[in-house]
Amino acid sequence: MSIANTPLPAADVLGVIRNRIFDEIAVGDTACMERTLTAEDVQLFAMLTGQTESPPRDVPAEGAAVAHTVVPNMLGSALIGALLGNELPGPGAKHVGQTLQFLAPVRVGDLLAVSVSVVSRDVNQHRVKLACRCVNTDGAIAISGEADVIVPTERVEVSRNALPDMRDGDGEAGLQRLLAYARSLGPIRTAVVHPCDALSLSAALDARADGLIVPRLVAPRSRLEAVAAEAGLTLNDVEIDDVPHSHAAAARAVALAAQDEVEALMKGSLHTDELMSAVLRTDAGLRTKRRASHCFLMQTPAYPRPFILTDAAVNIAPSLDDKADILRNAIDLAHTIGVTCPHVAILAAVETVNPRMAATLDAAALCKMADRGQITGAVLDGPLAFDNAVSAAAARIKGIVSPVAGQADILVVPDLESGNMLAKQLEYLGGAISAGIVLGARVPIVLTSRADLRASRLASCAVAVLLAHRYRMVPP
């Protein structure tokens, strides 16, 4: 925000907002602010105003190009009100009247310039009139009018408190909802493969205590008991399949799944390749017509909804056919968690097809496969750079008209290296909570890292519960 002409009493470093008293205000004084409007702004405005349409009027519908969705007119009016209440005149002012004309549309992704300017003063009533204006990204005046305000004659100071977090992107709340729903379905029988360190063993026992799984530990009994004793854990009432080493543990766990004695596998302290090699053996009985792939289900405070990132753990350099199966698996997961028509962004470094960049060619081919019915159940677009996939403003600035831009539910990465780096950046720098799961086999496979937090391990088990219950009705 900025103020022109007469200087305002500045907010101090503690976040105190001070008003302009009447005698400090002159004709021509101006305050202004800029805000890039997002789909989340529209959704929150609809919630606050109690819009009841489904979807609410002016809120992006399934398949809509978010970057060109028109924002409700009164959202701009609310921003004018915020400028009057916070800056000019500021706290203590009484807003007694306003006239507005709505002259041009404002869209998601617009950088909206909001300004108020004093046009007259009434000394007897301590009232001022201010011209109000909102200008959209195209430079057109979207909203124009006047506000009539009674201004205090004494100083008013208030704290600039942060607003409550109303976003759906609250990761901890989202995790609790996921766990509660998974518990309501009932625990699933799960083979925990070689949990021979304190982290993986405690994760299995935590998931049991949380009502998510009935664990069957497949590992050398002597090692399990030693780990449990050192970590202060108890193995009472836990079934154990005593095997000599990690290779045997993987083979035994896969056999249990193939014989329908367990409904899921959970990785312990063995290497991912060791477990997946046993799962993918042609004679193991767990392969399906799909290629196995890994999905991270993630939620970060910076994004208003959970999303799926794939594949960041199994397929190193997937071919076009591999990516088609990676996509199908991710779409199945989205359906399982309740996203009926997920928006899929196929990521590349750029948003245009470049023959020298294989990822852009694959993205274009996958979109055409969806057009021809070879991939169903979702809305696809690509190639999209990461910024365009998650930011409607970025897409609009670049002139991208897309039903996916700014509201992606699934992010498909070009290869494992880029996906793994992106996932870890989101987790360690973006505060994301994640769940890791492998799809494409007859049973879901909980695949977590040794560095994962307890919350991520529980979330992964919860996703496995949802998938296992789905597979009872619709086998993969």
UniProtKB/TrEMBL annotation:
Q: Which keywords appear in this protein's UniProt record, sorted alphabetically? A: Acyltransferase, Transferase
Outline the extent of the Phosphate acetyl/butaryl transferase domain.
250-463
Give the superkingdom in one word: Bacteria
GO molecular function terms listed in the Swiss-Prot or TrEMBL record: acyltransferase activity
The record's listing under Pfam families reads: PTA_PTB
Database matches in PANTHER family: PHOSPHATE ACETYLTRANSFERASE (PTHR43356)
What name does this protein carry? Bifunctional enoyl-CoA hydratase/phosphate acetyltransferase
